[in-house]
Amino acid sequence: MPSPPSKSRVRPKPKKRKRFLSRLLLFIVAFVFITSFLAGIFYLFLLFQLPNIKSLNDYNPPLATRILATDGTVIGYLYKEKRILVSLAECPPHLIQAFVSSEDARFFKHRGVDFLSILRALWKNIWAGEIVQGGSTITQQVTKSLLLSPERSLARKIKEAVLSYRLDRNLSKEDILTIYLNQIYLGHGAYGVEAAARTYFGKKARDLTLHESTLLAGLPQAPSRYSPLLHFQKAKERQRYVLKRMVEEGFISETEAQAAAEIPVFLSNNQEPNLMIAPHFVDLVRKYLYQTWGSEFVLKAGLVVQTTLDLSFQKAAMEAILNGTQAVQGRHIYTRTIKNVPPEKFEDYCPGQGQPVSEGNRKRTDITSGLVVQIDPMAQTAKVCLGQEWTVLPFPRPLPPTSPVQGQGDDEGLANKEESPTPALRVGDVVRLRRHPVSLALTILDQNQVEGALLCVETRTGSIKALVGGKNYNQTEFNRAVQSRRQPGSSFKPIFYAAALEKGLTPATILIDSPIYYRGSPACVPQNFDHKFLGPTTLRTGLIQSRNIVSIKILQRIGIPYAIDFARRLGIASPLYPNLSLALGSSGVSLWEMVTAYNCFPTLGQQVPPYYIQKIMDRYNQVIYTYPPKTEKVMESQTAHMMNQLLAAVVKEGTGWRLKALGKPVAGKTGTTNDFRDAWFIGFTPQYTLFRPSAIACRS
After folding, report:
1. Which of 509, 513, 576, 690 could form a disulfide with 539 if both were Cys (CB 3.0 to 4.6 A apart)?
2. Domain 456-697 is classified in which CATH homologous superfamily?
3. So what's the pLDDT on residue 155?
4. Would residue 268 show up in a list of annotated catalytic residues for this protein?
5. pLDDT(54) > 70
6. What pLDDT score was predicted for residue 406?
């Protein structure tokens, strides 16, 4: 059977093919035109929403307000964003090179947007299976930080690219880099390289070494993930990446990179060495600034506050308070629960325990904190971690399990002394450590309830040289030098003794030191400290030996209203109870008031109020405040001179005899309250007036 004939292929006619191609071309042109038209409209729409980049010509970011001691050392910051403006010239070259290498190697070549870097970053991220490199340029990061919101959208990315291109044309590369290094967030509240250098290393950016600079340069991608304070090993890995990029860009050699990676990193435990040297003083300055200018302004203005604090005085004052409270702790034991950290949170406090404390790093701070990670009960020692390092320290003296019996002086005893003492430390305890100023040996501070405060002013000017409001600001922010109202005991006597001299009495005036009795319910029978009576006693002897009966009779003679009015003239503003117990210091007063009053003696009757701020400058170094000196005549010069002689005799012959060991001219008065709950000393030299409650026992 014959096969059917094959069908021949029907070819389209040339006219139909041309018509199809024409329509396709027309469709493509129309599509491109419409797309371009819509893109143009969208672009124009975005242009109306773009912020004005000219605002960056005058870069004024929020800056931290700095509080300085007299020598210019920073003792405190106030901020919403901890940022300290630094110029490009103040940054070491290797710091700039580290950031450029890791964040935008082609920064000096592109025009704000680097498409080549975007493609390279995309390829590396796909190859690694995770985001290991970003495609944003330094200019784009500045644009995003200052001009745009952090939302993730196509519109925002287009705005970022357009603004980055404009910014690159409007500002120089140096200006953009300066803004970037001051604006970038680097973790733990630090914005910019200057604040980060002080936060992580306790130094200025200009003093950073290569290995420190590369550690900072690794932070912008993820400050919390690569924080050396929280994740040290990850931070080191990121540092090695930055060093590798610097080698690839030709900034350093392979040998330099390897050496920098092997140098040990010493961190400042998230604070500069001097930031905790005067916390109560800084808090006093903060409150004044907030009350005067408002917190919103102060936290962003970048003020420079020059205070009167002398660091050498402040360190000596802190040492005196710690020694004083420890001495009282040795005689009268008070216990307090120490903060304890569970093992699963050890990493937050101690991100690495690989090496013992080195000699070079031991001098950074006088007082620090540590975590007890191991205890050896046989050797009575504890292994304490300090960030990246550790040290082994002896136990503090074990604390008894029972509370002290109420007693007096050195006769105070303990109940149930037969019971064994409770352990002084447990694993996980966060302890305060103190370093001896000479030997540099670390010791664990007892966590006790004995408190103290100290205030020292320059006699002639009233400038505060040292202020300690308590031994541990982290435990309590209460400022005992200013806020506390405590009974001053016999230290109040010189005030109304001066009032008696003003009213005509003399140091030779005779009063009878004999028993007195006041009717009432209950009856009042005042006693001298030694429960003895001396009979006829001069006013001078009454003050030197702090005779209570003589003091009461002097107050009776001059009159309570007159004594209160005289105390007001000298600077005592607290309520004073109008009764004879005023002679024994029964009314609560503050240290600040007592310093103001006592300072009238060495100034020969001039009241010179204490002050703590010398001047304040704005971010442009323009002075906006200076302290106006204030003096007022409140006492006759002759009266003040006689009081100086009497208070000097208190040290030479009376209750202040221990101060003779100083070998310097000192005048002052001691004071104690019932059950030795408070112990005070206030005194002065020709140059300084000092008030120090040596111990305030906070008993429950």
Report:
1. 509
2. DD-peptidase/beta-lactamase superfamily (3.40.710.10)
3. 63
4. no
5. no
6. 29
CA distance linking residue 321 with residue 456, whole number of Å: 13
Count of CB atoms situated within 10 Å of the CB of 1? 3
Which is it for strands 667-672 and 678-684: parallel, antiparallel or unpaired? Answer: antiparallel
Average pLDDT for 313-337: 74
Contact 531, 548 (CB under 8 A): no
The domain ranges of the chain are: 80-262, 337-396+424-444, 456-697
Question: Per the structure block, which two tokens stand in for 623?
Answer: 């002075």
What is the CATH code of the structural domain delimited by 337-396+424-444? Answer: 2.40.50.140
Which DSSP symbol is given to 185? B
372 φ, ψ (degrees, to nearest 5): -75, 115
The C-alpha angle 245, 191, 237, rounded to 5 degrees, equals 30
Can 490 be counted among the known catalytic residues?
yes
Q: Which residue type occupies 286?
A: R
Q: What is the pLDDT of residue 34?
A: 78
Out of 103, 451, 458, 502, the active site residue is: 103
Question: What is each CA distance from 564 to 491, 546, 554, 579, 580, in whole angstroms?
Answer: 15, 20, 13, 10, 11
Say which residue, 329 or 413, is predicted with more confidence.
Answer: 329
pTM over 0.90: no
Radius of gyration (Cα) for the chain, nearest Å? 36
Short-list 594, 599, 597, 585, CA closest to 678: 585
Instruction: Tell me the pLDDT band of 314, cut-offs 50, 70 and 90.
Output: very high
CATH class name, domain 80-262: mainly alpha
- Residue 419: pLDDT band with limits 50, 70, 90: very low
Residue 171 has pLDDT above 80, yes or no: yes
- Comparison of pLDDT for 306 and 520, the residue scoring more: 306
